[in-house]
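FW: tagging you since you asked about this chain on Friday. Here's the raw sequence from the shared folder, copied in full. Didn't touch anything.
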Amino acid sequence: MGPVNKEQARHEAYMYRLLSSMLDDKDLACKIFFKGGTCARMLGYLDRFSVDLDFDLDKSADKKKLRQKLHNIFNSLGLSIKDESKKALQFFLKYPASLDARNTIKLEILDKTYNANNYKPCYLEPIKRTAICQTIDTMFAHKLIAPISRYEQGNSIAGRDIYDIHHFFFQGYNYNKQVIVERRKISVLNFFQELKGFIDKKVNQKIIEQDLNVLLEYNKFKKIKAHLKTETLYFIDKEIASLMKGQ
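HL: got it, structure written out here
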């Protein structure tokens, strides 16, 4: 994991307290499957700061019981609920912080899961605990889909989505093709062609720098920001060529 500043360190400390408490509740821990940027960072797959806790929910879970368990955990840690979804297990939790400093953790446990997702127990070194996590190939597949999905759902684009795709390709990780087919309802080749067009047309330098400059260590950000879009499109082009060759 890369270095963090004092504000980020405080945020991570509260996230780790919350995550540790959730995993210490065995009835809760067996029903939630860790995923997303913070999971990838804690497992050493990703080198940027991440601010949220994201999980998939086991289909057999009782959301009402889990909600009460989570409320009890929040209270025990002194976290106040700024906002809470009445339908989903989604919470915005406030922790003590100085004026104008980051003070909110987003916790989301989605009950919309996919049959192609794969999970395995993983040891989280920063908190010395084991969690059921998405496998790296499953994470990568969802990361690939994230830019288009985020735009379709909220008409927004995040520079971190492009960075994560670039980083996962650069590290040589494999992706779960079945996740892409299940989520997008098209072939993997057609998906990458769609993703290439989306990034080429929708992503600009301002978008790349907007949130990434506070999530990535400065020297890394300075080195990659001018090349991120071009190199990501290069990786996608190589993948398209490989898929076409395999037809």
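FW: The mean pLDDT is 95.
HL: agreed, and Residues 6-134 form a domain with the Nuclear Transport Factor 2; Chain: A, fold (CATH 3.10.450).
FW: great, closing this out.
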